[in-house]
Write a structure and sequence with these properties.
alpha/beta, 14 helices
């Protein structure tokens, strides 16, 4: 008897373990809908993603629904009905708090209606109309913007909205509601030029009789306290969605002439951006942005010297290389290497310090850590110290005087918000701008949190690459969002979680920042690791080579130069090429 009970319990335990190990099941349904159909989705507690798909013709039956949940989804929890030419999809669960996410693919020019409470709504593609109603969920739509009529309504809060075109003025309604109504696109622009407002439903709103007239899109988006994004990727949304005056950092970015960063500032604060831009000379705020060329300038000379940095798969510099470790060609022809020497050229270094409220209790530690860095760098390196909280402040301009650098660290206090991304953009586009073509680097000491920037992290990548500056982030964990990270439903609305919480920190951004710039990321787990990181940074900075080689460049000819490292899994990057003296 006892053996039978033991066997029964064992079978039950094995069965339970197998059931728990079985992956959660999704539900997939084919939808018989055509272009022009109306599809209504009701999902109270979950995310909804809808994507438009090009079909052979407007009568083609095409559509797909995938429902997923960490707890699995049963067929009975997804109800699909058709009545009056409208397809209705409703999530029904015995557990009202069970999260079920929906992803739909629908024919282009469909009409989409979505209802959620806290879940994010993302609609992407050429739809005829999009209507969404949420409580706190973010609504992100990406639709053709040639002719968009929009009606945006917040029922319990002031508007939080970002769009890639200028929106109409906010109108305050009764009962604490706020509304933005207008039209963007070809006709919207012409009406704006005439000083007219774009009122949906007016005679002016009707499209012109023109075969080339774009097909209109209508947006009716209603939320209680949510965020609305129109044609703006969620990963490019800034940390603080309030319309506010430009900081000194933001103004410097506008003056820098970096059109990508300027556009991000414009989207964040269109009114204040416009006011400030109009106060600048035209050439200062209408620049051309050109991507950094992969081809390094190759001067005409019989003997040339290239500054070359060699890194491994982890982006760490390789030291101790000799002539036999390199191979040089010009237009496919091998060139003789005369010498390979370690570069001793000084660096222009920016020490970027987070002095916001999140590190307020550690201000003395920050001073001590900063002084340690100043004492660690080479005596020929020029260092500038820039601090940031809500805005930036230059504590010390570039100097080799370590005494002055140390003294400047006694002139600040910590507190306020954290405009980390703005500070980084300021260092790249303003502080280091005077050293274009020289060896530059930014060393950052921060907890990585951001809650005040006009810029989003993903808006920085192109400008960082263009600058050529190496970036070495030292991230000291703050634990501000640890509780949120432990919540299994935290990503039910990633935008709201990131931009409406105490702080925002993109997953893996330290590694991405170092990788895109050619630097190294240092996740600090113990205080002693900071000094070790500084010492390692100095080693990384000094692990570059001056390679002198013979060239057969004819006058006026600019051959294609390639310098390769023969070491396995290593990569050579040419910073500059000059005529050898």
């Amino acid at each position: 008897m006892r053996l039978a009970i033991t066997r029964s319990l064992l079978i039950t335990a094995v069965t339970l373990a197998f059931w728990l190990a079985t992956p959660a099941q999704d539900v997939t349904r084919e939808l018989k809908v055509t272009s022009g159909s109306t599809i209504e989705i009701v999902n109270r507690f979950g995310r909804v993603g809808v994507k438009a798909e090009t079909v052979a013709d407007e009568k083609t039956l095409s559509g797909k629904l995938v429902a997923s949940s960490p707890k699995g989804v049963s067929d009975g929890e997804i109800k699909i009905g058709n009545a009056g030419g409208k397809t209705t999809i409703t999530v029904v669960s015995n557990d009202p708090r069970k999260r079920i996410d929906l992803v739909l693919t629908l024919p282009e020019r469909s009409n989409v209606i979505v209802q959620t409470l806290a879940g994010a709504v993302e609609v992407n593609g050429n739809f005829a109309s999009v209507a969404a109603t949420t409580d706190t969920g973010t609504v992100a739509v990406d639709v053709p913007n040639e002719d968009v009529t929009y009606n945006l309504l917040w029922t319990e809060s002031k508007p939080r909205v970002v769009a890639d075109f200028d929106l109409a003025a906010i109108k305050e309604k009764n009962a604490g509601r706020f509304e933005i109504r207008g039209r963007s696109g070809l006709e919207g622009k012409s009406k704006k030029a005439k000083g007219k407002s774009a009122e949906p439903g007016s005679a002016d709103e009707q499209p012109m009789a023109n075969d080339e007239q774009p097909r209109p899109v209508r947006l009716d988006l209603t939320t209680a306290r949510g965020i609305i994004l129109i044609n703006v990727p969620p990963n490019e949304v800034m940390s603080d969605l309030r319309e506010r005056p430009l900081t000194n950092a933001a103004k410097a970015i506008v003056r820098s002439g970096d059109s990508l960063l300027m556009e991000a500032i414009r989207r964040a604060a269109p009114k204040y951006y416009g006011d400030y831009a109009r106060s600048l000379p035209p050439m200062m705020f209408e620049p051309k942005f050109s991507a950094k060329s992969a081809q390094t300038e190759n001067p005409n000379a019989s003997l040339k010297t290239a500054l070359v940095r060699v890194t491994d798969l982890k982006n760490r510099s390789i030291a101790g290389l000799t002539t036999s470790d390199f191979e040089i060609t010009e237009s496919g022809t091998a060139r003789e290497i005369v010498s390979v020497e370690r570069s001793t050229a000084p660096f222009n270094l920016v020490l970027l310090l987070d002095v916001s409220g999140s590190v307020e209790n550690y201000v003395n530690f920050i001073r001590k850590a900063a002084r340690a860095f100043v004492n660690t760098v080479d005596e020929k390196d020029r260092v500038s110290i820039v601090i940031f909280n809500d805005d930036v402040k230059v504590l010390s301009k570039f100097t080799t005087d370590k005494g002055k650098l140390s003294e400047s660290l006694d002139t600040f206090d910590a507190g306020g918000g954290t405009a980390y991304y703005d500070a980084l953009a300021y260092a790249v586009s303003d502080t280091l701008r005077q050293f274009k073509g020289e060896r530059t680097a930014i060393v950052i000491l921060t907890d990585g949190d951001d809650n005040r920037s006009f810029l989003a992290f993903d808006a920085l990548a192109g400008s960082i690459q263009e600058s050529g500056a190496l970036i070495y982030p030292l991230y000291v964990p703050s634990g501000l969002i640890a509780a949120a990270a432990a919540n299994p439903n935290a990503d039910i609305d990633p935008v709201r979680r990131k931009y409406m919480s105490v702080s925002a920190k993109a997953e893996g951004e330290g590694e991405r920042l170092a990788r895109v710039s050619g630097g190294v990321y240092y996740p600090i787990k113990e205080i002693a690791e900071i000094q070790k990181a500084y010492e390692d940074i100095v080693v990384q900075l000094r692990s570059a080579y001056n390679i002198t080689f013979k060239s057969e460049t004819s006058s006026g000819n600019s051959p294609r130069l390639k310098i390769k490292s023969k070491r396995e899994n290593t990569f050579a990057t040419v910073t500059s090429v000059v005529a050898s003296q």
